[in-house]
Specification:
heterodimer, A: mainly alpha, three-stranded antiparallel sheet, 3 strands, about 75% helix, about 5% strand, B: alpha+beta, Beta-lactamase, six-stranded mixed sheet, five-stranded antiparallel sheet
């Protein structure tokens, strides 16, 4: 893809720009490619929704399909906005988000038809947030000033959830706001990334200095982050939300490594993770249940192991081609439309479906990290890398968890799973990444950055 | 920093590649196996929505089909009690047993689902399972049941060339359609009709074990068929007195003749000369002491450890008594291995899996075999077994125009009268059928089991001739 792109740019470097806004023909090609991919994603969603409707709800009104289609078409509006502003933003990330949303819509309609309209509304809200953020003319450096505020708000949100939150499916991770359940953990994820990026940008110079290490001084510099991280983890453990705890910790470790390149931190971090996990296993019953069920789901096949076993049976029943939409029994799985949506895809769309979804995430991860590599300025680069880690790791934790590759912890798969807060948070993250990619200058800068990365 | 960002990105991308490989394993490689685990609730749903496949004999005569009454599907067994031990039952309350259990996924049409079928089902056509074509020949099965009469026992008939099971009968039996209503009575019946004596009944083999002792002696070179042995009326080994059946006294005779006359004393001499190691190793090679790997669960029987066997114990197993247990299926394999030039074919009961439209989805001609004894040893034993029927203890198995080979057994057991055995094959020179008959507490093998085997052999040979005559 990149070779193709570079070819276009080389051909089109010199002709005059007839469009009035600062855009070369390479950029134009980007938007054209984006349009094609988006049309494919939206078409996929509409055809999928219609298939589900015809096979399962033929007698009922078509309203949900129409509403779902309209929400998907909103992606084209975003595309229009990008065209109109002559944005040089990455052309792959938005269509992938659209494709994942489309697959998510189809599966939600198949598994919990009454939730489709709600998910469509959340997606529309998320896209609105995305448009608003894209409209901000500045780069992200202003966020840096509010790094500590981000941390404070994030921890406060988590603390409020512990105190005033409501419990659903064994995890106390929901806040009721005017009748709508929101999951603050998803927004906190973004706030933490901003905080880590801010502090690390400030400190990385001194942390990376060669020479004798002064542990006390370093601890002082890392202190706020460690405290924040520890606080968040404690709050999450109390909420029984292990998935988010793992995610936050993973983001912290990856960002720390990217900012400082210090392998000793990584080693200490991994050791801390292992010992922390072992302590959690010993101290907390719900952690032990999760791990035991992962090691041997058959030991408690009708109890703790039920969900994960049903997931495995669903995947196995799907085989290569799947049973077809509406022809399987994915609703035998508890939480099929949230945590277990990936095995549900595996049952009805087969390995073809799960491979496609995994490949979409794989490409998304590639594009997000590419954006981070090309970003200008340490803060934006770190911010982008953090967001990329957040989305990628989150996808892996739930995809791997629901298939028993790793212990199952319930967090939403980005863009795919039913869930409003996650949708909004992930579209905000996508908007920030699109913004970063748009601000990376033209070809010369990219080539330099890539070559520099290879040399260093 | 860009370099490290790239590293981190590659690490994360690597996780997704691992996930892809794992998914390929779960969904493609182990998928079918995992999907057909009985705990998968989709199987029960499929069983409700599927017309179960039929079970047919080798000539496609229907042994089991199903009928829908009042929206509920019920299994119909043609001649149910005759096949109950092999086919098992399909009960909503007590689950599945026998071939019904073993091939449930096939009967529900679960593996290798035809995409076209899937499409038609999506449009509301009831799903149909696949049919099983068994190796069983209904005519031979019928003859075997008649030969057993009202006694307790079992008959196994094999094609020695392939290992295909032609008949597998166990008596007493039960009606598989009555399992739901009569379960407790069946389970508590002291005659244990639910117990498949053919594959799981374990009995001392008695003199029907002598072919194995003979094979060990010949293969180890300790004796030839012409070696002279003493057949006095009794012998004392370490203080234990062993006598011939009804105390016959023959004097010195050749090994071959001692086999035909089933002389215990001569075989004690032969066994002591051959040694426990050789005999037990030979018995193991013939498949005794381990489960034969059949379509339905089959017992392993028991062989003593040669290291723990003293001379007395060795003397006892030399004529098939002592610490030995075998199943009728295992003894049929012994006869079949001798008949098949020393190669024991693995027994099997499933010939084909057929789609509802008759297409053959899977066909099995054989499941491989293993060399037990060299062909020349096998043919020596075969001709000695032919002598048993020609002028020895098994004359009651003679058939007009066909040479039959066999070996009688009268196994003493602590639970009453002796168990009668007869293992046999025919025609003796180029065998096409091997039969093992066991009659519990019925008396002398040559008098009760041999005539029963004769009927089964006759029926099987007739059936094979008729099959060869077909286009």
């Amino acid at each position: 893809m990149r070779i193709l792109c570079a070819g276009h740019e080389r051909m089109s470097e010199y002709p005059a720009n007839p469009y009035g806004f600062p855009v070369d023909r390479g950029v134009l090609h980007r938007r054209i490619r984006e349009r094609g991919l988006l049309a494919g994603a939206v078409g996929l969603g509409v055809v999928g929704l219609a298939t589900v409707h015809l096979s399962l709800y033929g007698a009922e009104p078509w309203d949900p399909v129409v509403i779902g289609g309209i929400a998907l078409a909103a992606f084209l509006v975003v595309h229009g906005a990008l065209c109109a502003s002559g944005s040089e933003a990455d052309e792959i990330m938005l269509p992938i988000a659209a494709a994942l949303s489309a697959i998510g819509f189809v599966m939600i309609y198949r598994l919990r038809p009454e939730y489709l309209v709600r998910q469509a509304a959340w997606t529309a809200l998320g896209l609105t947030a995305l448009l608003i953020i894209l409209a901000i003319p500045h780069d992200l450096r202003w966020v840096r000033r509010y790094a500590y505020l981000c941390a404070a708000i994030g921890l406060a949100l988590l603390a409020i959830t512990v105190i005033a939150g409501v419990e659903r499916n064994g995890a106390r991770q929901w806040l009721l706001l005017g009748g709508v359940a929101v999951e603050p953990g998803e927004i906190v994820k973004l706030l933490l990334v901003a905080f880590f990026a801010g502090v690390l940008t400030e400190q990385r110079g001194t942390l990376m200095l060669p020479g004798r290490r002064r542990w006390r001084a370093e601890l002082g510099r890392l202190g706020p982050m460690l405290l924040c991280c520890l606080g968040a983890l404690l709050l999450l453990v109390f909420q029984h939300d292990l998935g988010l705890a793992m995610l936050y910790y993973g983001i912290f470790m990856v960002m720390l490594y990217i900012a400082t390149g210090r392998m000793d931190y990584v080693a200490i971090g991994l050791a801390a993770f292992v010992s922390g996990a072992a302590l959690c296993y010993l101290w907390f019953g719900h952690v032990r249940v999760r791990v035991d069920v992962w090691v041997d789901p058959w030991a408690d096949a009708s109890g703790g192991g039920y969900q994960i076993l049903q997931g495995l049976y669903a995947l196995a029943t799907g085989g290569i081609l799947g049973t077809g939409l509406g022809a399987g029994h994915p609703t035998l799985m508890p939480a099929s439309y949230t945590d277990m949506i990936f095995p549900a895809i595996g049952e009805e769309l087969g390995a073809v479906g799960t491979f496609c979804v995994t490949a979409l995430y794989l490409i998304l991860v590639g594009r997000m990290f590419r954006t981070a590599m090309l970003a200008r300025g340490a803060f934006e680069a770190l911010m982008a890398a953090g967001l990329a880690t957040a989305l990628g790791l989150q996808a892996f934790v739930i995809l791997g968890g629901s298939t028993r590759l790793i212990p199952l912890t319930g967090i939403p798969a980005p863009f795919l799973t039913y869930g409003g807060s996650a949708a909004v948070a992930n579209f905000i993250a996508l908007a920030l990444l699109l913004g970063v990619s748009a601000r990376t200058a033209g070809r010369r800068h990219q080539v330099e950055a890539l070559r520099g990365a290879a040399d260093r | 920093m860009a370099r490290r960002t790239g590293k981190a990105g590659r690490l994360l991308a690597g996780l997704f590649v691992v996930l892809l490989a794992y998914l390929a394993g779960v969904q493609v490689v182990w998928g079918p196996q995992l999907a057909n685990t009985p705990q998968n609730p989709r199987l029960a749903i499929a069983a409700e929505q599927t017309r179960w496949g039929r079970i047919l004999d080798r000539h496609l005569a229907v042994l089991a089909d199903s009928a829908v009454r009042g929206g509920l599907q019920a299994r119909r067994y043609v001649d149910g009690p005759l096949y109950a031990n092999l086919l098992g039952y399909r009960s909503s309350r007590y689950g599945l047993d026998g071939l019904e259990a073993r091939y449930d996924p096939e009967l529900l049409g679960l593996p290798a689902a035809d995409p076209w079928e899937t499409l038609l089902e999506a449009f509301g056509r009831p799903r149909r399972g696949n049919d099983l074509v068994l190796t069983i020949d209904a005519v031979v099965q019928q003859a075997a049941a008649q030969a057993l009469g009202s006694g307790r026992g079992a008959v196994v008939a094999l094609d020695p060339r392939s290992g295909a099971v032609l008949a597998l009968v166990s008596r007493p039996t039960f009606d598989p359609a009555s399992v739901d209503t009569r379960w407790l009575a069946l389970a508590r019946d002291p005659a244990s009709p639910l117990f498949d004596r053919a594959t799981s009944g374990q009995y001392p083999p008695g003199s029907s074990f002598k072919p194995i002792v003979l094979a060990a002696a010949l293969a180890s070179g300790r004796a030839t068929r012409q070696t002279m042995v003493d057949c006095a009326s009794s012998i004392s080994v370490d203080g234990a007195s062993i006598t011939n059946f009804e105390h016959e006294e023959y004097g010195r005779m050749s090994v071959a003749r001692a086999f035909a006359m089933s002389c215990n004393v001569a075989f004690v001499h032969l066994g002591l000369a051959t040694g426990a190691d050789s005999i037990i190793r030979m018995a193991r090679a013939f498949g005794l002491g381990r489960a034969p790997g059949f379509d339905v669960p089959a017992a392993a029987g028991h062989l003593p450890d040669p290291r723990t066997l003293n001379r007395r114990g060795l003397a006892q197993i030399s004529f098939g008594q002592g610490n030995l247990l075998v199943t009728p299926l295992q003894m049929a394999i012994v006869a079949a291995a001798i008949a098949n030039h020393g190669v024991a074919m693995r027994p099997f009961a499933l010939l084909q899996v057929r789609a509802p439209d008759g297409r053959v989805l899977a066909a099995y001609a054989q499941h491989g075999g293993r060399d037990v004894v060299p062909p020349e040893v096998a043919s020596a034993i075969a001709s000695d077994m032919a002598d048993v029927v020609r002028f020895g203890t098994g004359t009651a198995a003679q058939l007009p125009g066909v040479a039959v080979a066999g070996k009688t057994g009268t196994a003493e057991n602590p639970h009453g009268p002796a168990d009668a055995w007869f293992i046999s094959f025919a025609p003796a020179d180029h065998p096409t059928v091997a039969v093992a008959v066991l009659l519990e507490n019925a008396g002398v093998g040559g008098q009760v089991a041999a005539p029963a085997a004769r009927q089964v052999l006759a029926a099987a040979l007739r059936a094979q001739a008729a099959e060869a005559g077909r286009p």
